[in-house]
Amino acid sequence: MFGSRARGFVLPASAILVGACAELYHYQLSDIDSTQGTLVPVSAQVSSTGVDFEQVWQVLELTPSSRQRERIWTAQEVQSSAHSGPTTGNPTFNDRWADEVASVLLAQCPSGRITGVSAVREQRKYSAISGEIVTVKGLCIQ
Amino acid sequence: MKHLYLTVGALLAAICLLNACASLHSISVTEVPRERDQPVFAKRNNIAFFGIHFDNSFADELRQDLAEQCPHGRVTGILTKYEIYWYLFVQRRQVSARGFCVDGSADTTSLTMQTPESHRMLARQERP
Predict the structure, then answer these.
(1) Residue B47 and residue B87: Cα distance in Å, rounded?
(2) Closest CA to A138 of A15, A49, A60, A30
(3) CA distance B125 to A46
(4) ipTM of the assembly?
(5) Rounded to 5, what percent of chain B is helix, strand, coil?
(6) B residues 1-60 closer than 8 Å to A (CB)
(7) Contacts made by residues B8-13, CB under 8 angstroms, sequence distance 24+
(8) DSSP summary character for residue A65
(9) Which position has the higher pLDDT, A62 or B57?
């Protein structure tokens, strides 16, 4: 079906799409206290869907109508002016998606005492769509 | 002339390969203890061509590495860094953590929590 050159491109591309590229933005580790008792690992992960608008605009700009293209450029400018400042990952549809991560973690630790907490901000990229992820792992003191 | 181009090209390539481009992506630090005579350090690396990575689990063992160096105490004052190095087409991601192992019974008063007045008092006490 595909020529050898096309296969050489399609196979790595599909591997990237299926596997998804992983991006790490931030890693943080808190104090580790091994003196208080038995430590049991706990973890919590929250995520949201992100959209890579640059890629979306690039696809939409392929339209043959020049009028449509102008509308797309206007929408692109509105979108880019609404998203300014430093960010990690792609824009999501709300900014509260990571708020629950601490309560999810605490729910797994009846004593309420967690040490060695690592917080990771990462992204899984699937072309124009991405998974924006926050993972928190720790050791519950029992 | 051709020889000169080759020499300059080789020199530039060597500079790129040996030095690498480094970028610091995140840094954090926890409360720094007064007792700092037992430093601990751990780092984890992840290498990929063209910076295409498929997971971020390489840093998961970092906490364990630090805890093993301080089995009966408390690791505190942890400086965590996430850096990226580029060697032409190869990217190396590195997460490192440097802290201090403090004995469980020791006074771990944090320097970051002290007021300027308490800093002055501490300096007066430590003066011979």
Answers:
(1) 10
(2) A30
(3) 48
(4) 0.74
(5) 30, 40, 30
(6) 25-26, 28, 30-31, 52-56, 59-60
(7) B13/B88
(8) -
(9) B57
